[in-house]
Fold this sequence. Notes:
This protein is an alpha+beta fold. The protein contains five helices and eight strands, in the order ααββββββαββαα.
Amino acid sequence: MSHRKPVTADELKRIGLFGALSTEVLDHLAESLPTVEPDPGDLVFKEGDTARELFVLLEGEAEVVKRSRSGVDARVAVLGPGDWFGEMGVLDVQPRSASVRALAPSRLLRIRATDLDALYRHDLKAYALVVLNIARELSRRLRVTDSILADFLVNVLDVVERRRPDPSDG
């Protein structure tokens, strides 16, 4: 991954993670946060890696891949411009829960845990807004996952019920 074109405050303004931040804070972040440009096929990070940064997809496309217990890789999401990923790593300091790979030439904004700490010291309100925006996105993702899981469970139970012999058939 190479480091190239810097991000602008105007780009940040259009991304939900930075919603409600002042122009001054957006300018500060644009000046202080680096971008990286992975090529198609490059891993941004690998499941199990140490996690202390999140990424915002500014341009391009990436996939989130989760490895099952049996060792099968499954695509769980495709991400596009404006999406962000890796936020759990700056919140809970656990190893990466999935891998992310660039699918197309991409440009990512990298935000390390130390960058969030610096934002906390620079502007507490802006820090709180960013963390709240992360929490809102995590909540949205959890609702989607809950819905998928509920649908899956209902479908499995329907299949089991249809296969169960009818006691009246004796």
